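Hi all, posting the design record for the shared folder.

TITLE: backbone redesign
STEP: 1 of 1
STRUCTURE INPUT:
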């Protein structure tokens, strides 16, 4: 035995199914009923109106009849001008309770109709002088029936509705048959069919490999074994092992979860079925489960294969909550079908389910148990080295100038995901093309970074007083970034309005930070309040320009008190809801606050104490270094935008000293 699986036996040819016996009697019955209903209840607009003989004589006397055709006592003819019978006055009188009875029972009169064609009956006491009377008034007496309209129009009007109804039924039946099942959930209109996009690794245009993935080496290494199993499953099954049925990719938006799943399929050389979880759910109950069945059916037919479900939290949320439409909602049925399908294969078929989510905490526990999603791979935001590697991947087809420093760009973009870095390269290339350059320069990247972070430039006409105040505001941030120990180095200062900001001070950390000391947080608050402090020191007044600074400072100070235990008055107590580590949003308490009003007042007092102390420290430092502040303002008013070396040269200050951690003896 060499480990090669034996060839599958060729299945016997399928016996062709006998077509069902066709019966057309129901078709004829439907057409006949339709024709009777339409002709009797809904006559055509030009259908003949039956008038009394007296009305016929009156219209002949008015020269309003052009031709007649007689057969026995029946007369058919055509008016010159359309005639309405019965007249509305006759109908009105017939409906009146006091209407007298005449030879015609007016209570039985039909509703008025207007037509140029008419029919009537000759009375028993037929007038022999009628022929002369007709000739005298110019009436043509025809020996053949008078044509009242197109025969095809009559057939279409009589049988058209039934033909349309039958045609719609036949089309509906064929669509249902193509969908692979009966009923709405089985494929009618194709809504039960999976909408998964298939990518074949054999197609070079769609193939993605690990060479296209960078900056997430830890997650990539976790999936190497998956690729190896899909390439050589006998290597693992010979000892009784099975591959994981499912792998859950967890990470922030834009970190490359979908790209990583495509790379796994590309490396293994197997088909890749991609579908968003939101595409499963429809308003009609049962469609989501039908699409799940169809998706797994397609994967089994193409095995080995990979199924990728993006944003699985759309259908994988924990069951048992209150939902509209009752407990057995469409979302729950879809989730249960996924659980059933993942239990339906042993792992030897070569089908692996990859899923991505930003909110793993809300997923159903049955979905996360071993045997379904066996592994969880966290795709973190890239560090500095990872960002540089990602930039190198995205600049492969972009001509770069000699001054471009990807390492410096990676250092200037902390917190950027792979998608953010791809957008940065694209914006820089577009900006260079707009400037008619032959290659993308380092300045193009910096300008693109400012545009992404702050928005495009705004052509505002500011007065000299406003420009000076804005310059002092931004200089206050920058000078404190050079004075406060532990503050992030100041990278760029500008008073060019961008987005909603009238100016910007861009600070970047020298290294990626994963743990924040209390001194660093206070240094950040002092730097944020430097703009307001500079305005108070120089002008003695306040403006609305510090709104965003105050918001950020309050957020950090409240976190110090309620989340990180940095207040002696409060202590190490969790008083804030947990935040989603991948979306940066609060999870909420889900009810009332878990602390008293006295504690809430104490929290507010501690937050105010921290912010007030940092504000006073900012004003003290700016008063002591007023000369450096004025010098930086003068340089800003002259050039509008200053880089790091220009800031140090204008102020004459060295970079801020870095904090040194000291071990505490116990």
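Okay, here is what came back for every position:
SEQUENCE:
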């Amino acid at each position: 035995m060499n480990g090669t699986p034996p060839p599958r036996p060729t299945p016997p040819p399928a016996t062709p199914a006998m077509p069902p016996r066709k019966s057309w009697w129901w078709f004829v019955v439907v057409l006949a009923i339709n024709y009777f209903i339409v002709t009797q209840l809904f006559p055509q607009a030009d259908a003949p109106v039956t008038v009394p003989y007296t009305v016929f004589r009156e219209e002949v006397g008015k020269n309003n009849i052009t031709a007649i055709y007689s057969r026995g006592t029946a007369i058919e003819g055509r008016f010159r001008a359309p005639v309405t019978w019965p007249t509305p006055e006759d109908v009105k009188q017939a409906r009146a309770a006091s209407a007298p009875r005449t030879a015609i029972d007016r209570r039985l009169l039909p509703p008025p109709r207007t037509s140029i064609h008419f029919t009537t009956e000759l009375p028993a006491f037929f007038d022999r002088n009628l022929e002369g009377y007709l000739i005298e008034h110019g009436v043509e007496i025809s020996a053949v029936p008078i044509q009242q309209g197109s025969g095809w129009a009559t057939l279409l009007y009589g049988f058209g509705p039934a033909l349309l109804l039958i045609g719609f039924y036949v089309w509906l039946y064929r669509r249902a048959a193509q969908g692979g099942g009966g009923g709405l959930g089985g494929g009618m209109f194709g809504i039960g069919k999976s909408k998964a996009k298939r990518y074949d690794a054999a197609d070079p245009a769609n193939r993605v490999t690990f060479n296209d993935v960078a900056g997430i080496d830890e997650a990539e290494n976790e999936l190497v074994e998956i690729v190896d199993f899909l390439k050589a499953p006998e290597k693992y099954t010979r000892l009784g092992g099975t591959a994981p049925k499912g792998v859950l990719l967890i990470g922030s938006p834009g970190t490359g979860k979908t790209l990583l799943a495509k790379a796994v399929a590309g490396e293994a050389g197997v088909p890749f079925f991609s579908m968003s979880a939101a595409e499963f759910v429809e308003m009609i109950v049962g469609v989501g489960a039908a699409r799940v069945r169809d998706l797994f059916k397609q994967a089994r037919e193409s095995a080995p294969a990979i199924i990728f479900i993006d944003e699985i939290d759309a259908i994988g949320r924990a069951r048992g909550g209150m939902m509209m439409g009752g407990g057995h909602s469409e979302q729950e049925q879809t989730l249960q079908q996924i659980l059933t399908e993942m239990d339906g294969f042993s792992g030897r078929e070569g089908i692996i389910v990859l899923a991505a989510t930003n909110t793993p905490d809300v997923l159903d526990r049955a979905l996360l148990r071993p045997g379904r999603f066996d592994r969880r791979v966290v795709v973190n935001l890239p560090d500095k080295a990872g960002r540089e590697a990602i930039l190198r991947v995205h600049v492969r087809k972009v001509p770069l100038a000699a001054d471009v420093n990807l390492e410096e760009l990676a250092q200037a973009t902390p917190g950027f995901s792979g998608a953010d870095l791809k957008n940065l390269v694209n914006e820089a290339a577009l900006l260079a093309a707009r400037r008619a350059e032959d290659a993308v320069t380092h300045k193009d990247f910096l300008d693109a970074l400012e545009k992404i972070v702050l928005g495009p430039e705004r052509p505002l006409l500011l007065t000299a007083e406003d420009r000076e105040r804005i310059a002092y505001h931004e200089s206050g941030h920058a000078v404190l970034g050079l004075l406060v120990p532990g503050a992030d180095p100041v990278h760029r200062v500008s008073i060019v309005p961008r987005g909603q900001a009238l100016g910007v001070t861009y600070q970047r950390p020298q290294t990626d930070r994963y743990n924040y000391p209390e001194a660093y947080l206070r240094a950040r608050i002092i730097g944020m309040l430097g703009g307001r402090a500079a305005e108070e020191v120089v002008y003695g007044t306040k403006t609305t320009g510090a709104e965003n600074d105050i918001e950020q400072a309050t957020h950090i100070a409240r976190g110090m008190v309620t989340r990180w235990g940095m207040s002696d008055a409060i202590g190490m107590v969790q008083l804030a809801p947990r935040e989603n580590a991948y979306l940066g949003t609060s999870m909420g308490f889900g009810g009332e606050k878990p602390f008293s009003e006295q504690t809430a007042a104490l929290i507010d007092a501690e937050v105010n104490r921290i912010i007030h102390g940092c504000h006073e420290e900012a004003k003290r430092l700016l008063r002591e270094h007023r000369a450096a502040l004025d010098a930086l303002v003068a340089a800003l008013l002259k050039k509008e935008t200053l880089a790091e070396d220009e800031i140090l040269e204008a102020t004459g200050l060295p970079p801020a000293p870095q904090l040194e951690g000291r071990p505490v003896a116990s």
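COMMENT: Residues 101 and 179 are 65 Å apart (CA to CA).
Let me know if anyone wants the other runs.
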